[in-house]
Specification:
By secondary structure, this protein is α+β, with helices and mostly antiparallel strands. It is globular and about 60 Å long. It has a 6-stranded antiparallel sheet, sandwiched between helices. A 3-stranded antiparallel sheet has the order 1-3-2. Helix 6 runs antiparallel to helix 10. Keywords: DNA-binding, Transcription, Transcription regulation. Pfam families: HTH_IclR, IclR_C.
């Protein structure tokens, strides 16, 4: 296959590239304060919400949460009751099990609704999905993970839940590896966890092997996930070059059962064209640094 990186690079001149979107919110382990004194109660509240969100459909008891966060049980209970009152946390009829509340959904939906990069990519991926009828994604680098912001599912099979809003380790996904391959050594160190835990038996958990794979991605022009995230599925991805370093990438996931060399070439070529379209859409909107004051 011809690397779309080289074939399409002149579509977004370096002197015209606009600053890209801010990365998704960092995880609790990342530096949040930027030199400003941290408000401990606010940090604890955010950590509690993120812990509940990460548990997905597994409600937690007070003791589990307080122990996981190293927070006194009385303090944890007070925060939980306040968050429950305002709808950020919900509880069962007994008041002993806690989960993420509907206000978190409303905030997350607002993030997607107001992000112009998401809107630009979604319309392109919708058209691409209609053409190839495979599953396409837009992901954004957030700490050591990739967050799924857009998913256009194939009509050939039905998934019981949406992947939008889910986080997966960047090193185990084509989306993440496409973005990791564009980072320098300092950036790579920042976005790799201390341990590369396996998601499947095919996940690259050896750092030397992962670095060789990232070097191949830079040379080839696109990333491949060979059952490293989901057994039986191969994924192809390209980073979006409207930011440097890139924070967003698009991908296509295909079951191995219906994947042929010719189909792989069609997918990579189509992803390259979709990337060009998204990048040109970003340029045409004249987007500046998202969230920055316009001067």
């Amino acid at each position: 296959m011809t690397a779309p990186t080289d074939r399409h690079r002149d579509r977004v001149p370096e002197d015209q590239a606009v600053p890209g979107p801010a990365a998704a919110e960092p995880t609790p382990s990342e530096e949040r304060t930027g030199g400003v004194r941290e408000v401990k109660s606010a940090a604890r509240t955010l950590e509690l919400l993120e812990l509940l969100a990460a548990r997905q459909n597994r409600p937690a008891r007070l003791r589990e949460l307080s122990e996981a966060l190293g927070m006194p049980r009385s303090s944890c209970y007070a925060v939980l009751r306040t968050l429950t009152k305002y709808g950020w946390v919900r509880t069962d009829a007994s008041g002993t099990l806690y989960g993420i509340g509907i206000r978190a959904l409303l905030a997350g939906t607002s993030y997607l609704d107001t992000d112009p990069y998401v809107h630009t990519a979604k319309s392109v991926l919708d058209r691409l999905g209609e053409h190839l009828d495979e599953t396409f994604h837009l992901g954004r680098l957030s700490g050591t993970d990739v967050v799924y912001l857009v998913t256009r599912e194939s009509g050939q099979y039905l998934r019981p839940h949406s992947r939008v809003g889910r986080r997966l380790p960047a090193y185990s996904t084509a989306l993440g590896k496409a973005l990791l391959a564009g980072l320098d050594e300092a950036g790579l160190t920042e976005h790799l966890p201390a341990e590369l835990a396996p998601l499947t038996e095919h996940t690259l958990t050896d750092r030397a092997a992962l670095r060789r794979d990232l070097a191949e991605i830079r040379e080839r022009g696109w990333a491949v996930d060979r059952e490293e995230n989901t057994v039986g599925v191969k994924c192809f991805a390209l980073r979006l070059r409207y930011a440097e370093p890139a924070t967003d990438a698009i991908s296509c996931s295909v079951p191995l059962a219906r994947l042929t060399p010719a189909r792989e070439e069609d997918i990579v070529t189509a992803l390259g064209r979709a990337r060009d379209s998204i990048e040109q859409g970003v340029l045409s909107l004249g987007l500046g640094a998202w969230g920055a004051d316009e001067g």
